[in-house]
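Case study B.
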Amino acid sequence: MVHVGIVGASGYTGVELARLLAGHPEVRLTVATSRQYAGKALAEVFPNLRKRVDILCENLSVEELVHRADFFFTAVPHKTAMDIVPRLLASGKKVVDLSADYRLHDPAVYETWYQEHTSPELLDEAAYGLPELYRDRIATARLTANPGCYPTSVILALAPLLRKGLIDPATLIIDSKSGTSGAGRAANVGTLFCEVSDGFKPYKVGGTHRHIPEIEQELSVAAGEPITVTFTPHLLPISRGILSTIYASLTSEGKTADLQALYEQTYDNEPFVRVLPAGVPPATQHVRGSNCCDLSLQKDIRTGRVIVMSAIDNIVKGASGQAVQNMNLMNGYPETLGLMGAPFFP
Amino acid sequence: MVHVGIVGASGYTGVELARLLAGHPEVRLTVATSRQYAGKALAEVFPNLRKRVDILCENLSVEELVHRADFFFTAVPHKTAMDIVPRLLASGKKVVDLSADYRLHDPAVYETWYQEHTSPELLDEAAYGLPELYRDRIATARLTANPGCYPTSVILALAPLLRKGLIDPATLIIDSKSGTSGAGRAANVGTLFCEVSDGFKPYKVGGTHRHIPEIEQELSVAAGEPITVTFTPHLLPISRGILSTIYASLTSEGKTADLQALYEQTYDNEPFVRVLPAGVPPATQHVRGSNCCDLSLQKDIRTGRVIVMSAIDNIVKGASGQAVQNMNLMNGYPETLGLMGAPFFP
Amino acid sequence: MVHVGIVGASGYTGVELARLLAGHPEVRLTVATSRQYAGKALAEVFPNLRKRVDILCENLSVEELVHRADFFFTAVPHKTAMDIVPRLLASGKKVVDLSADYRLHDPAVYETWYQEHTSPELLDEAAYGLPELYRDRIATARLTANPGCYPTSVILALAPLLRKGLIDPATLIIDSKSGTSGAGRAANVGTLFCEVSDGFKPYKVGGTHRHIPEIEQELSVAAGEPITVTFTPHLLPISRGILSTIYASLTSEGKTADLQALYEQTYDNEPFVRVLPAGVPPATQHVRGSNCCDLSLQKDIRTGRVIVMSAIDNIVKGASGQAVQNMNLMNGYPETLGLMGAPFFP
Amino acid sequence: MVHVGIVGASGYTGVELARLLAGHPEVRLTVATSRQYAGKALAEVFPNLRKRVDILCENLSVEELVHRADFFFTAVPHKTAMDIVPRLLASGKKVVDLSADYRLHDPAVYETWYQEHTSPELLDEAAYGLPELYRDRIATARLTANPGCYPTSVILALAPLLRKGLIDPATLIIDSKSGTSGAGRAANVGTLFCEVSDGFKPYKVGGTHRHIPEIEQELSVAAGEPITVTFTPHLLPISRGILSTIYASLTSEGKTADLQALYEQTYDNEPFVRVLPAGVPPATQHVRGSNCCDLSLQKDIRTGRVIVMSAIDNIVKGASGQAVQNMNLMNGYPETLGLMGAPFFP
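Model:
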């Protein structure tokens, strides 16, 4: 039984971590921080947690925090994470960081897309927390950088094709659609119900979304060469879910390959990746509330392209669920512990 | 480990039963029937179940069924249930019936609202499956009649007031609002997305909904006198959730009573009933996906009335979750087994 | 062609006024104020207005305003309206005020529910802007107090019954459900998409909503005696629409009366009130985007009550559409001018 | 004042035609057919039309129809349209056909994607009803083939780039997302509220959707060479709206061209096409209920591509509104008559 803390418990990833940890047999949530709600029960902030999660929000310094738990989830904005994570590690704690601060290996890339990095020495050490790709590395890490939601949906979808050279990386186009929980819980006119409901729109078009360098980093690893992608995110009028529709031209080898078989071989033993039967596209409503990533792919013989589609719940496999999966690995627990709940539908 | 069957697995209560049973440590789902989808994997009908529920839909006679499981959930329409349940019992099986066929004790009332009853002798025997009221009775039953979704939300909300005589039963008005999953999964113009979405309306107004006799039966038991209520259901543009807003005039005793304390005393030890702090109304989004029933009540001193509000997930506490709760009792398992998952929000 | 100004154009009632006025043949929108968006085109704030409404938001004093238009809609919060309206009137302008400041005739009532009233002398003069009840009065008014959205839905529903003494006013219970646009466009966690979507909840329960005195004032006029009601508002996961379900006990005369005929006689010549055929309940999705109020009523013979149901679009008949209807009357235009668009469905 | 008939009035395009025609000053709707609802008022089928559209649904032969109106909208499925349209034309009527039957000029292409064509001689004569491209042709046509919803959103978005050779047509990838009204009003499990709501998914992936040949026909005309595209439709949990996100590699000329200026020049005089300011993406909620098509485009300098985005209301500009626009042209009315209503938001 490990004592676990959530730093930044008052956002949507915080409440989802609390929900998942409440059903986890090997952890005890011993501390949850929130500056805004300090002194309030977390279940008062998120009434879904009543009678299930009994913890107060606190406003604590790192010095106080380290006495309260042995394993930490940092669910705070980038930059704030950089302030906290090194000190938690220095106190001998293990950390899954849900921010972007330790996802990019190259500090120069980080500084191009974000700002100065104050603990670049940790970038090499941090494991990239996509267990399906880096399981062994994560198992021995002190610090795991939990992947972004969009990158999770994209990397799992493309890794098999890129590793085998079956698509031309220069042709990659990623059209992603995310539920509104991805925008967080801050008061904001743009994410009011009346602005989002019964509507749909792209945003950060033209190569400007900060998940791009993360996607490119990992796709480049899979391909063994540097990759630049076109990536367009969109805002869906749903709370949870990301669906990515990805296009690439098949290489001559790709045109003849049995891609369905390749994906089934790659992922059949993965508990959280489900390769759908040929011709069945994924749907966000079929992964809702679960740590699953559903994948489907289809050749377009008229144009020589392949369309790869993936669906995840952005706050489970795209954030808090994957974070728990990483914690399981880092603590030597079975990877699926507390995470095998089926998606709920409808 | 009990072998369990779902008769009628292809509706929304069926898929939810399968989801809940997949996470239950003491049962094994060994048979699932569906005439329409016989031969298909249940996970093909409901892709959320892939890699979590591995069972084929079958079209079986009762004679075949009884060799395949020891405990049955019958999730078929009323009248069909009457055909099946007596034969399952006759083969020594235990049954939780999710239809209306065994909820009413008085066959005459059943026949007024439905049609002829072909096994009236079972009406007395069947336990009314609201564990918070009939826990002991259910524990020894062969047959439990799982309550209707609206009645569950209403009875839990009113029982404490009626038992103590704190409201005038003749003034009871129940205004209930249900998510669309309550209308089932049949193809139907009236429940198409475009008809329901971004809209709201009442239906079966004026004392015609078939849940009325069930509500009146149980409220009459609580009050110790016959009660007739006004009940208006409405259709919400959400999938899951019922919220009931209930009005009654306080008796002179009721006007001075500490109702908040009464509800807290009544329900504090109940794992699935959550009495909210004074002034906090319930919300369907805070019970979603869980077996919880959230209750709140508020006096209106200007008019001498009390407003009692309850929220449940209509396919969990209002159907499949309560059915599993009843199964737990009937099998001697801890009542909460497989059901303690917190609601998910957002 | 009258020159018209909108004071407070950046809320949802403002954009709807601009949309309706753009299609009105006898008005020209000459000024629109917004402190927050001063200098921006209104169509930049609300992109639906592009190529249809060509006006800049301005931050103007009342002294400047009066030179820019002859008729004003004040769509600002209560209290702010009191600061502006008397000065507009003093400059010889006509005003439809969409705030609550001039709806209540009795300053003491206003001060109980709001705060001190700084122009109580106007309360008697202001017409209550429900044209179906006060058409003649409005036609000669300088100042019309545009009704609240909930009161509009309630008063039209109940006036015929109360005037004829067919229900017992002491038994009135009003259960209302509103779309989220009623909460306005301010940044607010409680009305974020993820908080409202796929959910439903009551708020301001127990006689505390500020529309209560307005409802009671007008129902009392209809009944000819003081009325106190129980009123519970709820928040619907839709943008537009209010549905009120209203309960009352029938008097002995009411029990035998032909209520359907009464409503048809009362409203058949009203262009914006539609009495639905017996047994057909109203639905918000059937009035969406229009100035219609749909009414339906049903006796519950089991309990001796009547259930009256009404549906409006809260930002049209409940706000901006009714404001234009009032403007038409005040300017001697045909009452329906610019307002006869059918609701859009789906 | 022309007498107009709707053949097939009981679908979503039918009700929208009726709504738009009710507000059109130069037409009178004299006949509306529906086999299913014959004898019922159209306003009984679609209660939004009450007190606005007063017409009965009838089940009429073509022989009867031609005596009832001079201009017809055929809003029936493909193949059924082929049975009716030639006979309407033979009786001297003008027709806007909303089916796919007369959109493709090449009967062989039609027969590849649909079935045998029984009036191929009309294919050359039929005008392709996209007024922004074929205004003059439509004005003199007896028969106009109203474009598909997806093609409308795509062709307006791409024509300027293709005509100038600024993109490489071989690289075109079209990722489109449609509201559920596009699936029609037939009872169908797949479009039930509970299946669509709070979800998102692709369908007909890999070059199989029947709008592909129509898109390719018109893009090929614009480019002056045959074009084959990758097209993926998706189902949005909204009623109305299509958003298309379109990707192509810029030619060297395209990389340096001022695309924003090109689009503004092309469309600034178009009343229904709105080119958004640079950096502002379109949103379906900002065209809802209107005949507008909003366009935005953005270069991705990292990859040398352009992303073009378009938003329409699929049942207005994508169907019934465009049909009225075509009727206006065919009858010599101002093109915008009855269509200038601003989109409603929220």
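Chain C touches chain B through 49 residues (CB under 8 Å). The remaining cases will be described in the next quarterly update.
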